[in-house]
Amino acid sequence: MKMHALLLWLLAASSPAVGVETSPALAELEDQGRSHLYNLEYKDARSVFSRLDELAPTSPIGPYYQAATIWMEELAKRGGMNGSTFRTGRYWSENRHEPPAPELDREFKDLVADAVKRAEATLAREPGNKEALYFRGAAEGVLSAYYAMIERSYYSSYKAGKRAKKYHEQLLEADPEYADACLLLGIYEYTVATLPRTLRVVAFLIGISGSREKGLELVRKAVESGDRTRWAARLSLAVMEQREKKYQRSLAVLRELEAAFPKNPLFPFERGSVHLLRKDWSTARRTFDEVRRNQAAGKPNFDAVEPSLVLLKIAESHLFAKNFRRANDILRKALEVPDIPNHIKAVIFLRRGMVSDATGHRDRARADYRRTLTLNVDKPTNKLAKRYLTKRYR
Q1: Residue 205 domain flag
Q2: Number of neighbours of residue 103 by Cβ within 10 angstroms
Q3: Residue 305 covered by a domain
Q4: CATH code for position 249
Q5: What is the pLDDT of residue 205?
Q6: Domain total of the chain
Q7: Is 360 part of a structural domain of the chain?
Q8: Which residue ranges in the chain fall short of pLDDT 50?
Q9: b/e map of 222-248 (b: 16 or more CB within 10 Å)?
Q10: pTM (2 d.p.)
Q11: Range of the domain at 123
């Protein structure tokens, strides 16, 4: 299902216009809208895409981008817009599941249906239209991602994702140099190849296979030669490089993204997370401190990262560096943040329990592990809490 999550980046902000006569004005609007989207300026993005739709009323470009923006904003509200969503399975294992508001659900699906209808109209007139094939797959892709991450309807997500793959395979077969079509297929190949072994066996039995190497090759082709997918491909590659433990490569790509989209706090936050993976605790701490300072200064869009989560990450950088007193102080501050989401609060209690264990306060530690289990937010967090209830964290 992580493949469908990544469609947020590879489709929502990178699809080409279909059936739209190329003009400097339209190209400028499209680029402007994507820039707003990558900078998390959702209202501005919707405004630009509405104008684009007015100028190109028979093209899927307007309704598609508007649907993608709705989905992106909803995903951000649910805490699914950070790298760990794509790198780990925690988002999918969370026990919380809030169905989308009916009006939002209806608007999103109506827009996707409109984009599909317009793309199919282009294909009816011109069956070999490359951009129409691309956009038709993109529409299915964003629908697949919505099913997976908002509705948690995984079978529906699989079916839409399979249709998306079909259209992009047709496109790449017709034109092997159409690099933008490589991205979705590359992520598909890589994701299937890196599923847990039991799931790979099931996938093989139903005729689904993947290749780690081929997936990376396709995504790198989109990075090197893609046009509208160039930034989405970079983000996808950054996540893949983390999973391959190529952390310096991932950091280099994240710095490119930060330079291009300075209003998006998710990129520096992700950079800090990569430094945690590298066990470079001091650099991670400085990076998260940078995000926190920007939040305190009221820098636009930096409130997209939950403040308690930033403090939690700073505390983790101290905890794993064995600066237990400082970690405890930061965790206390994190718990003072108003309206902390339970999926973050549970991890704060878990980490505070670990600090208590490491400093010889076993009863306090057990109390916090029990608080974590009471919140019951996801399987990985519960598993750690149960482990440390039985055997002290050291």
Answers
A1: yes
A2: 8
A3: no
A4: 1.25.40.10
A5: 42
A6: 1
A7: no
A8: 1-21, 201-202, 204-206
A9: bbeebebbbbbbbbbbbbbbbeeeebe
A10: 0.86
A11: 2-261
